[in-house]
User: Fold these one by one.
Assistant:
Number 1:
Amino acid sequence: MTMTQDDVFAKVRDVLKDALGVDDEEVVPEAKLTEDLGAESIDFLDIAFRLEKAFNIKIDQGEMLPDNVLTDSRFVSDGRVTDEGMAELRRRMPHANLDEFEESGRKVEDFSSVFTVDAVVKFVKTKLAAM
Amino acid sequence: MRWIWIDRILELERGRKAVAVKNISLAEEVLHDHFPARKVGDRTFPALPLMPNALIIEGMAQTAGILVGHALDFSEKVILAKIGKAVFHAAAPPGFTLRFSAMIERIDAQGASTSGFVDRLDWACPDAPPVRVAEIELLFSHVDRNLSGLAFPEHNFVFTDQFMNLLRQSGIDVPAGF
């Protein structure tokens, strides 16, 4: 049975509530996981594990948040993502909106802000569609 | 100081489940501070020694940490990264035994998540069913793989001689090199 957008969102909301200890009303599509919901780096591993269980999917390391791109000298220069790096991120993260990150200067330290609740929902939908 | 909050491992099923016990003793200093006798106004409250819930979580972290470490032959430095859930239902006084049961929910190269529960056994009533003390979910990080850029010692500083001796004492084989 195909899950609707609302079904996926509701389950993602439950996962984020449990993983981050936030309330229902805080989990809105545009909320940024780090800035708005207080996620730290280890929370992304927790969220990945919980999404796997909730949706019965398998998420490989770096699939949801390919942070290894940001530690690769081919893709980063002076703390900013290069053109090649942006192309790699766009290829690996079709679920995320990278426009704001690109326009605001591509700073590595700002990268986590691309991860919104909506990006998680889109990521899960992509995974479910591929099953 | 011996920071080890389990006494014996009863079961260790690779990658799946571990069960350990802890005998709570009045000889442990911490119980005398948690809680000492106190006077409030004219009333005196007697001492109420209990194992602190934070140390019950530590006991579960040690049980589950050994389970996670054992799954990969103690090749990873397994660090408690997050307490996903810790719900307490009953107190843990001296003279009772706590039984920690930990299960792996998910494990990969980056870390592992575990679920588990803690039961209290009363040796004055050995046939009585155990009392559920707590339910605890934990997240462990394989620290070398999650903190890139930070250098950690080569040797496995998590699984010390204390833990390896606990395994040996419990009749569990320890990998060569430990």
Number 2:
Amino acid sequence: MKAVLVDLVRCMGCRACQVACKAWNDNPGEVTLCLGCYDNPPDFSGDTWSLIQFNEVETGEELHWVFTKRQCMHCEHPACVSACPVSALEKLPDGPVVYHAQKCIGCRYCMLACPFDVPRVNWGEVLPEIKKCTFCADRQLHGMEPACVKACPTDALVYGEREELLAEARLRIQKRPDKYANHIYGEKEAGGTSWLYLSPVPFKELGFPELDEEPVPELSETLAVYGTPSMLVGVAAALGGLYWFTKRRAEGMAKQGKEE
Amino acid sequence: MTTVTKTKKTFSIADLILGLIVVAGVVLGIIRLATGLGPTTNLNSSYPWGMWIAFDVFTIPFSAVAFTLAAVVHIFNQEKYHGLSRFTVLMGFLGYLMVVLVLVMDIGRWDQFYSVLMPWRWNLHSFMFEVAMSITLYFGVLILEMLTIVFERSGSPIVDWLKRLIVLIAGVGVLLSCVHQGSMGAVFVILRHRVEPLWWTPILPVLFLTSALFTGLSVAIFLGVVTWKALGKPAPMKLLSNIARWVVIIQAIYLVLKLGDLLLAGEFGLIFSSGQFSLLFLAELIIGVIVPLVIFGSQAGKSEGGLVAGAVCTVVGILINRWSISWFALNPPPPPAHGVPMTYSPHWMEWGITIAAVAAAILFYSLAVRFIPVFRDTVTGKAH
């Protein structure tokens, strides 16, 4: 299982990753507004699948200016994949969560199901597609690292095996506990993600959702796998039984009526 | 038909107005399909679902009118409701027709809707799949039931054949509907991070099924009174009061389930501490459950006015409930640190197509009742 370790302590906010993503995926630039900050654009869109958010966080006496690279987290148990009625979203064995446009019916359930609010559509298109980071599944297929990782000048993004990157992340926290918050985001969140984060400040301050270890789709899938068939059998049996019972009673009453 | 009935067989001004709204809706529908969701809706990434989804989520329990009465007639063998069940099948058929048409408007890739019909693409983990499949299959059942009714007296061998299979067809319809109404609620289970806690619970499928049962029966009561009165006949009060008794029982169960679930989850306080959501929740419970319980459970439930009032309150309550879960209380994600929070209120074309769908259902229902002999004769007592 491949993964990327994002070390926000190392990131200097150059946005080379953001540009590399656009270049590799042929995504056009966006007309953006000055929002009084460096975020540009401030959120994902159909044309922007990877971006840097700039967070000013005060911890005690220190002010941290944290540059947060955001993209699809490529969950190990993706809610979008579980939600999609027609298997248009797929978790590849190597890690990427990819989208097959030719299967999609455009119901947008994936957009709501994602706990990280990642999938987007280009609302202006007549026949839109779901757009999000692909983890450069096409590059990975040919043994290349994702475009954003390739572009990163400070090794804030490192591509590799998930287990090895987790070990590396633990080592970095252990070596410099003063620099890192003691938390690898994505190790356990929502059952684990293929993108892992280290941060100088608590992740809550950066707007990362606080998720427990249970995969988001777990309850829903349990209901689908056990609830639906039990309900089918139970309701069918109940209906059959009631039909038989009321039929006999009606016949009995008719017979009684005749005898009288 | 040789029998002369006094019921009006001419078009009225109301037909004309409804017809014009439907034509306008068809034009808007073509514009929507030709230009995409962007120019015709106010949907955005924070609100990927809007009025059209909410319309469908409400119209599905409304259309439970067909399967609840089908169960009464064909499963519980209550022949005396057979006449009424013709109208409930008609309403259910029109309801699902509107659900399907509005769904086609809503899905971005309507050109690829056939994806749902390809078994190798089915995702059995997805409740959206279950809903899509149930709508398709159950709509097929409703078409067969409609054919059986409309061509009842044609003497065609196909209809005779359908009539002989009607218990099986209706049984499959009831089974599909029970699963379907439940899975409509289960769609929101995976959206826990979006649904306001006051509404989110793992028993959503049970609540959706239970409330669909009493909503369907209430719509049957409403149709019974209004259709019979419109055709100048006294409503079949005995039958309708009996149905109202069932509504009382199911609504009481629903109330216990809903409040009991909140109590057991330790979330009872949310009913009063959720701000504007508390108002929505209380409105739903008071208008949709408590008032109908009082009306149907008292002497008022034995009068035509009382029956209509109780049924209308129930339907309004379920409208509030389904629109809360699929729209008002389906919260947007937290906005990005420096982004502008997005809002949603329906585009005028979303309103237009929704209103046209409602108008179409009313128009087709009233036309069918007036112009298709079997419906008219049911009311005038000439058809069994």
